[in-house]
Amino acid sequence: MIPPAFEYHRPQDVASAVQILAEQGDEARCLAGGHSLIPMMKLRMAAVEHLVDLQDIAEMQGITTESGTIRIGAMVTQHELITSDALASAAPIIREAALQIADPQVRYMGTVGGNVANGDPGNDMPGLMQALDATFHLHGPDGARDVAAREFFEAAYMTAREDEEILTAITFAPHAKGYAYEKQKRKIGDYATAAAAVLIEKDGMVAGNATVAMTNLSDTPVFSEAAGAALTGTSCDAHAMKAAIDAMLNDIDPTEDNRGPVEFKRHVAGVILSRAISRAWDRA
Amino acid sequence: MNDMSPTREERVEKLKGLGSSRKRVEDARFTQGKGNYVDDVKLPGMLHGDFVRSPYAHARVKSINIDAAMALPGVIAVLTAKDLEPLSLHWMPTLAGDKQMVLADGKVLFQGQEVAFVVAEDRYIAADACELVEVDYEELPVIVDPFEALESDTVLREDLEAGADGAHGPRKHHNHIFLWEEGEKEATEQVIDSAEVVAEEMVYYHRTHPCPLETCGSVASMDKVNGKLTLWGTFQAPHVVRTVASLLSGIEEHNIRVISPDIGGGFGNKVGVYPGYVCSIVASIVTGQPVKWIEDRMDNLMATAFARDYWMKGKISATKEGKITGLHCHVTADHGAFDACADPTKFPAGFFHICTGSYDIPVAYVGVDGVYTNKAPGGVAYRCSFRVTEAAYFIERMIEVLAMELNMDAAELRRINFIKKDQFPYQSALGWEFDSGDYHTAWDKALDAVDYAGLRKEQEERVAAFKRGETRKLLGIGLTHFTEIVGAGPVKNCDILGMGMFDSCEIRIHPTGSAVARLGTISQGQGHATTFAQILASETGIPADSITIEEGDTDTAPYGLGTYGSRSTPVAGAATAMAGRKIRAKAQMIAAYLLEVHDNDLEWDVDRFVVKGAPERFKTMAEIAYAAYNQAIPGVEPGLEAVSYYDPPNMTYPFGAYVCVMEIDVDTGEHEIRQFYALDDCGTRINPMVIEGQVHGGLTEALAIAMGQEIAYDKLGNVKTGTLMDFFLPTAWETPNYTTDFTETPSPHHPIGAKGVGESPNVGGVPAFSNAVHDAFRAFGLRQSHMPHDHWRIWKTANDLGLHG
User: Fold this and answer.
1) Which of A65, A161, B500, B798 is deepest in the core (most CB within 10 A)?
2) Residues of B labelled catalytic
3) Angle CA(B801)–CA(B410)–CA(B744) in degrees, nearest 5?
4) CA distance B626 to B48
5) Which CATH number fits domain B38-140+215-263+270-303: 3.90.1170.50, 3.40.140.10, 3.30.1380.20, 3.40.50.720?
6) How close does chain A come to B310, measured CA to CA in Å?
7) What are phi and psi of B560, to 5 degrees?
8) Shortest CA gap B734–chain A (Å)
9) Is B124 in contact with A2 (Cβ distance < 8 A)?
């Protein structure tokens, strides 16, 4: 559990960080909270010659809400997500989800940017950001570009981000009144056996726009458009719930691991989604 | 005339003797980060070792090329079996009469096995060099199933002579280690064959691991000038390590000093001798410099001693009224690649034959087949003495299964079969003499405390509501009444590598009335420095705060067999009391001289000898201690010291009654422990607060084992649970609240009546948690499901029972 030697960089701004990445190519990796990268380095599964620590970059910090847009700097920790009053009123689902990530010590270090940029299907934030229809802001040698969260994840640990790009911030609009993040895990510090992010906007007596995203049930987060559509126009009753679950089950593709066999995971995915829908509908 | 203040009550309070919830004296340094663990040992010129480990579970080692590793600057040596062979150290004896490779000799037999030992100037270089050692493997067929092992043509242990006896008798197959039997086989089978009711079940206690927070490690320092070897290490039995090190190395025992400093948890994992210890010693001898080896978490989980892995096939018979008539058990025991169990020599299955439990069973038989597989060696007592957890789990599951067969309440079935109070000392059908017990009192107290009748009523209503579709949660009531066997043990039948399992205490009283006592045991968190001082305080009248307890340094401590299997209080605690009594006997002579009376005219009172009938005439222990050093007393040697080596006449038999109330979500397999009540009877209670802490810790380990913790392998022998992401170690979040309670039935043969408590909660806790899971599904016909009861396994149980519609 000891990593090989590496060079340590600590740039002060995004431009300098991008420059290091451009110079070192795929031998460089960005360090945010380190909860995924450092264990991989210790296990010698990730060979990192140049470690680019992003913690001193001020422009990647902070949470702002302006003119209907919430911006979260990529280096904002999960602890900051939980304690932000602005987020609590504009996007309470963030707090609900962040509280289900590991334990306080992990959340003091773990960042929202690292959580999404690593492309680990076990992480909670990617699915949540897809439900929120968030935008990821990337900076690279050729300048800045935006990628929708729903377009970002390609496969396990594979994303739309190029090696020399840095994910610097996430923006999204305040979400629907009905929300829930439901997660089953074996223990503290574990990835989800299954997790569901659900947002429901009430339209009169029925559900209007509804979004559903699932975590750790495929090699990427799963934004299930069909599951959300199954709820729209319904009162989220048992019939609608079943339609949403069936739609979601068509979109996921879990694999067997120590958390259990595929059959179990599919069953639990349905249970977790139904609980998330119920809670979101109650709040809507 | 003496001053009569302080009062007797004040003196008793100041003593902090038996029964005082004195705060742990160790905690000041532990909570401030001032402990001194093996990894804190730093010596000038110290080198660092690391292992190249096998990625395969079974493979031939065709060649090892160390050139690239040796070429790395800072690498001092790379040891392989070839280097150890001239010293006859490429293999070493195990505690179980087998032998085990120190470094791979021609083949590897489990994933994580030590192949080469790299020694470098710092820990980082050692890790880098490990990657540069080129090992050419040829994969061989892997066997991870003990039943398959006994059928397979694949020979795992090619070093053993075919057909020759093993350490415990004949081997019936090349992958067989021993068959050990106890009890009356034919008579038992006869009773079961003709019984009115028989319940039969395969009870599997899965492989797990003690996983102490501090992993194993050692620092060896060979001083080539004076010929002395000093060895710091994570040793639960430092004196035995010294003896073994002397026998293996040829260094005379007086030239070896073994030091166990602070130890961050042992739970049996630190009883055995590991290749890392041997390699650090050899490397220090070869280089003339101190060599440190500290394993990481994955090394610890993959390669050091596991626990359990017992397949227990049981048959239990009874009358129609539920009176048990016989018990039959056959175990297939997966020992891994080498038989490296830590058991007394005569007992290759430890004390598994305590498996008649708390019940009066007239006839019984156990047979245990030990088997080699391609898994890590071990088989230690994870917070239990020698397979007692397996035994307790087995009988407590069989009782539940029998209750189903009889359609009877499991609490009542236990009650009508308990050994009665007036039957003690009780001879069990499998040869033990239970020293004392009062099971009915404890059982009734426990059932009253949880309102057992009310719980059963609530459960009945829950099942009805579940069937009506009103809830998806079931309620389980997990019962356990366990009987432990601890305090190994009488030298006549207990030894480790030939060393009798006595223990020892040596006391020196200083002139000003304080004291130091040294013992042959070693605390790994049990709080010996706190509790042994309390025993001495009550025996000698010196306040516990004025007594220093030292353990773990073989140059200063008297010989003892160490700390595991709840043996410290039953054995070393007894030695401490006996040594204290020798002090008091001499003190009485000194007091008589000082008070100018006959010895028999004095009586002991808390901290002093008082002239009978003249309470104002007395000498305190402090005054007596001073006199021992400054007065010439006719016929009495100066000084005030004593030593006692205690060979216990019998084991002790703590017991307890546990009830676990658990909610189970049949759709997700999640559980919630609503209530856990633990009544322990460990005889005389030395420090109630320390006992409560021990019970909380042991129950939490039991929770882990029952509900999620395992060492799992895939078919290729890859460890699937080699990190703490997949190996379940509970945090405060997963840990429920516990209610502790007690009865107090002193051991009749122990000097202070104490029995030991450290392992009880693990022994009794596992069946309580597991029985709660089974009980929740009893109404739907579940008889047996294997631990650990993690989410998907509980879900599978519900699914198999048709509860998902």
Assistant:
1) B798
2) 236, 383-384, 759
3) 135
4) 49
5) 3.90.1170.50
6) 21
7) -155, 170
8) 7
9) yes
